[in-house]
Please model this.
Amino acid sequence: MRKLRKGESYALLRSIDIAPFKTRRSLLRCAHRDDGDITGVVQSRRCIPPIVYHTKLVTLLISFICVLFSVAQAQSAGERAVNGLQEISTLEVGNTVPSEFWNKSVHVLSNGVLKHTTLEFYKGKPLLIDFWNTWCTTCIAHMPDLYNTLSYQSGQMNILLATPEEGGKVRSFMMKNDYLKDLPISSLVENTNMKRYFEHGTVPFYVLIGADGKVQTMVGLADLSLERIDELVRNPSQTYESQLTSDVISFPVLLAQQYSKLPNFFHYFFHKGENADLGSANIKRKQHDKLYSLSMLNIPARNIYHTLAKIYFETKGYPFHHTFVEYGTAVEMLDETCSLEISVPLESGLDIIQESLDMLNIRLPLSGQLVKKEIIVWELFDIDSKLMPTAEILHAGKFSRLANSLRRELNDGRLVFDTSGDRPNNTDGIDSSSPTTLKRSLANLGLGLRKINLVVPHLIIKQNDTI
Model:
């Protein structure tokens, strides 16, 4: 049989590599696993006895598979383009920004006016991007210095701010803030794509793009030098890579342990894969009963999502059940070991759970969304008390031992919310052989049981093929 040419082999392997479900080997396991082997010893494959096929038939079959993969890939990319979804590759110092960076529609707030436009206006001249947030006083305090640089004052450089916050909120804030209201500020708003181009773990964060579109530097505040910015603008062939570990990839983990209680400390860290240097942890940090920081190190992505959902329910005062997290078909990636750390300023108003989900949605080929779902449940209630409005059951109900035991007795897959208060914690004396006997035995305990529709938040995890 004719061997595959190099081009044919590459096309097939490339198509397999970009399939929605990728096979990832753990660093702790052997290079080749066969039939569930995890001993760390490379095992030889058990081969199927050879079958003789017609050479031309096999060649045609392989070629057909390659074409199918290529068509599927092209269709997937085409569908994403039709829907306005484009893949974004993370940029590094020395890279050239892609054309879609300039052409993609964005929201820019300039002189108090919110415009739907592109960044074409900034193309062809050095552009300094300043990532900020309205709650970041450090970001705001350093903004006037940027506009006082020689490069900006001489008209050789443009400055563009960038924040994911809502446009109306940013406009109101700028009009009232003494540092900003007199500055000629233009800011991207409601924008998360920019952060995907230039990954960072803290704000403020600065990126200088040269007139030729090349990224000349990416630095945090600790490594910012306005003199260096001016020098880079004068010398477009030069670049500067930060000497500090201030990016999202290598930013030191567990910084929250030391700094997170400081005003306006925003930090996140994410690492995909096993990292023995980090150890293992699942830490929640609170101040005045308010959660401000999480460290979940070297645990499966599934456990991270489960922890985030559980914390969300705790903060809302709802009882949590594992069925409130739905994983859909995103099975393989959920077993990937990951590390996530995040800290948000206590006074920022940021939702740490939503911030964590947004980060995971960017860094993993998954989409985790909190949605409200109506489900049918049982309510175990006190027959001597007035029936509780359905809207209050989620707050007042609990999964007591009696409710869980009753759920097993009913065996219909529905949850049982107990709103009856303190009652016996077992089903002794409860006869569930028929609906009539069940109702009678519960009544003897002063309890009733009714089926209701209840709206309950769910965390839905799906495969995200647009990443």
Residues 55-82 form the longest helix (28 residues). Residues 1-85, 245-252 have pLDDT under 50 and may be disordered. The two ends are 38 Å apart (CA to CA). DSSP finds 14 helices and 16 strands in the chain.
